[in-house]
Amino acid sequence: MEKKELIVFIRNPENKKVVTAALESGVSALLLEKPESKKVKRLAKVKTIAPDGDYKLGEEFVIVEIKGKEDEERAAKLLKQGKKVIVKTTDWTIIPLENLLAQGDEVYAWVRNAEEAKTAITILEKGVKGVVLDTEEVNQIKEAGEAIALAGEKVELETAKIKRVKPIGMCDRVCIDTCSNMTRGEGALVGNSSAGMFLVHAETESNPYVAARPFRVNAGAVHMYVKVPGGKTKYLAEIESGDEVMIYNHKGEGRIAYVGRAKVEKRPMLLIEAETKDGKKVSAILQNAETIRLTRPDGTPISVVELKEGDEVLVYTEEPGRHFGMKVKESIVEK
């Protein structure tokens, strides 16, 4: 599932409470029906959809109120013309949205509360592109923001058995410090190949020597791939402050985290190899330290220094083939 957009309809551009709540909830833009973008931009740096906005209301974004079949047909025509269509219904229902999602991807739902937002982003599995939230209730804005943030990309994780753990000496490794705290069972997907990645657990666990750092994933050697939003990957060496990375739990449910910093340091490393029940091989080069952990099928972490042949850990596999981080179909062998 792609990243969803939260847009908040602003009735009063000088209502600082609503504008602030929208910003704190991860809004991608504010919608204003009048040319009043300057008023909200005095309060914060934010994109606007308005007659005088960053995105022109009535041109790039078009609001279509669905009262009957003719309105639905007009919305479908606008989608085919490349417009972003905000679907507004007098009596909120998913039927027009279902019909329009079959016509194009740039469908936005006008919703009145967080519950409607949650429904809209999951219609027909892929959901709408985003929602326009029409409320001045701060708690509803925040709840909708949380729902949008959690509407990440779900992947199918599988179990693999450890085949080999081999010390390989000093390498450059990347430690990703995100702007979000993670909980037990969460981490990032990294691997020597985009076709096979381990769920490397966040540093949520403390021990007598080191405090927990739940915002951190010690992700491994600079050459490895890491999953980022949109089904894409990046080399760990490319990760920098402000980037988005995907965080997954042991059920494969993903969310976006923003990178605060990425530290590259020389550390002793381990080559870790595993194999799924259907013979797919997964490998990674991770730091040789007790605080670096993989993830068991039940979500509990296991330190790389404790790994032994036959231990079961969570991995993600797919067909190999990437071009600038995007999946492509090609014949490729990675060893």
UniProtKB/TrEMBL annotation:
Residues 13-146 form the 3-dehydroquinate synthase N-terminal domain. GO terms for molecular function: 3-dehydroquinate synthase activity; NAD binding; oxidoreductase activity, acting on the CH-NH2 group of donors, NAD or NADP as acceptor. Its EC number is 1.4.1.-. GO terms for biological process: amino acid biosynthetic process; aromatic amino acid family biosynthetic process. The keyword Transcription regulation does not apply. Belongs to the archaeal-type DHQ synthase family. This is 3-dehydroquinate synthase homolog.
